[in-house]
Amino acid sequence: MRKYFYLARNSLRTLGKNRKRTLLTLLGIVVGTAVLTLVLSLGKGLEGLIMNQLGSFSPNTMVVEVQTPPSSKAGVMAALDIKTLEVKDLEDILAIDGISHASGWYTGTGRAQFGREDENITISAVNTDFPFTQNFPIALGRFFNETEDRAGEKVVVLGLDLADKLSNNQPTRLLQQKIKINNHSFRVVGISDEVDAMGPMSFGDMAFIPLEAGSKHLWGEEHLQAIMLHIEDASQTDRLSWRIQNVMRRNHDIDDPEDDDFAVRTFTQLMEIVDTVLTSVNLLLASLAGISLLVGGVGIMNVMYVTVSERTKEIGLRKAIGARPSLILLQFLFEALVLTGLGGILGAAFGVALAWFISLGANYAGFDFPFSLPWSGIAGAVLVSIFIGLVFGLKPAQKAAQLEPIAALRAEV
Questions:
Q1: Contact between 143 and 195 (Cβ < 8 Å)
Q2: For residue 173, is pLDDT > 80?
Q3: Contact at 8 Å (CB) between 110 and 121?
Q4: Would you call 13 helix, strand, or coil by DSSP?
Q5: pLDDT tier at 392 (50, 70, 90 boundaries)?
């Protein structure tokens, strides 16, 4: 053990004699390890951000939404013109055993006015089942009831953030008051608590009205854009998805799945998409980090060959007084390992610091981006950098070990 301690100490002393060359050689390893550490940390943070953005979408949640049929040559945006999803689909799906709640969904944009406040808003027309299909707690008042829903009464439930904007942070002022939505008077019957998002949409900034009210007063459209579902048992997702597809194809007279003008989205499918995207991004960035490490490894090999050439007489002298080739090999191999190990540690520290600053900036900008330290991944990044030193330092070390003492002593440097 003492032998290896002296080898490591001598390696540090040797590297310290030419600090500029050592620092320049370290740079490639530091950058590569830093990028690799950054990728691992940001990958975990990005996963947390996406999970936070999913918010109300849970294993017990399903969504039926319109889509451009796979057999169609029309683009994805053509789905906005599909008007085949109807209330009958909603009622037939709700009749399936295992589905506890179902709400229609139609969304649009508009303006809300209360007193002097005027806001651009997102308006969502839904059913009374909506709070049960999503995590949508009511803090003040109530959600509109079935009578108001069926009659298309002009009542509205406001997200807390929107209520704060319209009332100058005094949301209780709005209860039972009338606000203007696209120049129609709607009575505020409820205000939400802090709510999760659904993907990129923030429920806190939305106004929720009955489906019939949206159809009668705002859009004149009878169709739905989506159906939000809550199922009793998350383990039955696949079975229920199959049942829903059968109901929808029967209602829409579809024989070939390639002609489906709807899509059934489950939590599992969504997570598979998220995993695929994250894996692809991480692989791309990790590949860039790997290229940087390889470049750093080539630099180390080059420097080690130069070092062997500069110390040829020293090697010859040590061999002449009895140093074994294995000890010479270990000496130079240790120098490469110390160099890459030090670069790996510095790079990992720099990558962690950079990931922390990115997380801090993202949170300051309003994104819920958690800072993550994947310790096993960081240790792996450092070990990879050390392995690079082992691979690229072995050949120069072997060259040093194989030098003939007499030839080495006669060599001109």
A1: no
A2: yes
A3: yes
A4: helix
A5: confident
Residue 220, strand partner residues: none
**Residue of higher predicted confidence among 412 and 139:** 139
Q: Are 33 and 347 in contact (CB under 8 A)?
A: yes
Q: Which residues pair with 187 in a beta bridge?
A: 155, 178
pLDDT tens, residue by residue, 267-315: 777 777 777 877 777 777 777 777 777 777 777 787 777 776 766 666 6
Amino acid identity at 311: R
Whether 259 has a pLDDT exceeding 90, the answer reads no
More confident residue, 260 or 207: 207
Query: What is the pLDDT, as a whole number, of residue 144?
Result: 93
Strand partners, 156: 188
- Do strands 184-192 and 155-158 pair parallel, antiparallel, or not at all (unpaired)? parallel
β-sheet bridge partners, residue 312? none
Q: Tell me the residue length of the chain.
A: 413
Cβ–Cβ < 8 Å for 130, 198: no
282: Cβ–Cβ under 8 A, 6 or more apart, which residues? Answer: 39, 40, 43
Measured at the CA of 206, the angle between CA 200 and CA 207, to 5 degrees, comes to: 155
Other residues' Cβ atoms within 10 Å of the Cβ of residue 152: 17
Task: Find the DSSP H helices in 118-236.
Answer: 130-133, 146-151, 160-167, 211-213
CA 36, CA 42: separation in Å to the nearest integer?
A: 10
Helix (H, G, I), strand (E, B) or coil at 105: strand
Residue type at position 126: V
Contact 84, 66 (CB under 8 A): yes
| Strand partners of residue 155 | 187
3-state secondary structure (DSSP) of residue 311: coil
Give me the residue spans of the domains in the chain: 2-53+272-410, 68-260
Q: State the burial class of residue 160 (Cβ atoms within 10 Å of its Cβ: 0-12, 13-18, 19+).
A: buried
Q: Is the pLDDT of residue 199 over 60?
A: no
Q: Are 29 and 293 in contact (CB under 8 A)?
A: yes
Q: Which two tokens stand for residue 245?
A: 């597809």
In the three-class reduction of DSSP (H, G, I as helix; E, B as strand; rest coil), residue 142 is classed as: coil
What's the CA angle centered on 221, arms 261 and 182, to 5 degrees? 130
Q: Which residues are CB-neighbours of 401 under 8 A, at least 6 positions away?
A: 325, 326, 328, 329, 332
